[in-house]
Amino acid sequence: MNRIKVHISEVLSSQRMDVTYHKDNGGINNFVPLSRYVDVKGGKRIPKGMSFALEKTNYLYLRLSDIADFENINYDDLKCISEELYNKLKRYEIKKNQIVFSIAGTIGRVFLIKNIPEGKHVILTENCAMLLPKNSEVLSDYVSILLNCSFVQKQIEQNRIQTTIPKIGLDRISKIQIPVIPSLSVQQKVIRVYQDAIRTKIQKEFEAKQLLNGIDKYLLKTLYIDENINREENKQPLTKKISTIIGQRLDVSFYTDKFEMV
């Protein structure tokens, strides 16, 4: 029988006593809590009795359900709120290059806030947390890459609270274990490699889509089918008498260049 040895300090820091957590937590004993490098703060729901603005304003409310592409957020798709409501919620404003972490429903979705239109202010939903680096030696891009790694996402999954809508508390996010963050130069190098890989991925996906879109033409050409044939004017199938089949040729293209498969 294999035994799992867990230090009491690990139980106290994680506040977890279930075997599956510590069994799958191997290899991260030399890591440090996320809270060493970032402050974790919550978003805020729209107060009871108040609602979104009916007209466009400079004050936006970010909900995950309004985002189609997390890498390129279309701020025109976000709901607007009044200046009065913004002033009530402005302590929950999320700004450029800050990290958003989803904490309810789809847990652990991590992305950076970028390209906020000039003059616009964005309030964060209560279903997300904002992660704020504690000093200039910690880069948001690097932390975002770390949090999207599988070994961190696994911890997020283990720490979620299973209710009608799955959730994870801000305190548990703070205790997520990550590797010690290296120097600025190393962080910047990792970010460059990661961004190059993402660009390559996007390019390869585009090429794959182009190739996929070309399969129809390839099949038609391989089957000797004229894709420009007028289907409405050529509804009759090609027929040949058995007596006219010569040279042991049964392929349609031997007898005609233009035909329609029926």
Summarize the structure in short:
By secondary structure, this protein is of the alpha+beta class. Helix content is 31%, strand content 13%. Strand 6 (99-102) and strand 7 form a beta hairpin.
Question: Can you lay out the helices and strands and say which pair or pack?
Answer:
Elements: H1 8-14, H2 19-23, E1 32-33, E2 38-42, E3 59-62, E4 79-80, H3 83-89, E5 93-94, E6 99-102, E7 110-112, E8 121-124, E9 128-133, H4 140-147, H5 150-159, H6 170-174, E10 177-178, H7 184-213, H8 215-222
Parallel strand pairs: 3-8
Antiparallel strand pairs: 1-10, 2-9, 3-4, 5-8, 6-7, 6-9
Q: Mean pLDDT, as a whole number?
A: 83
Unreliable sequence segments: none
Distance between the terminal alpha carbons, to the nearest Å?
66 Å
- H and E order: HHEEEEHEEEEEHHHEHH
Radius of gyration: 29 Å
Report strand %.
5-15%
Outline type: extended
Name the helicity range: 25-40%
- For the largest beta sheet, what order do the strands appear in spatially? 2-9-6-7
Structural class by SSE content: alpha+beta
- Output the number of helix runs: 8
Q: What is the strand tally?
A: 10
Task: Please describe the biggest sheet, giving its number of strands, its sense, and whether it closes into a barrel.
Answer: 4 strands, antiparallel
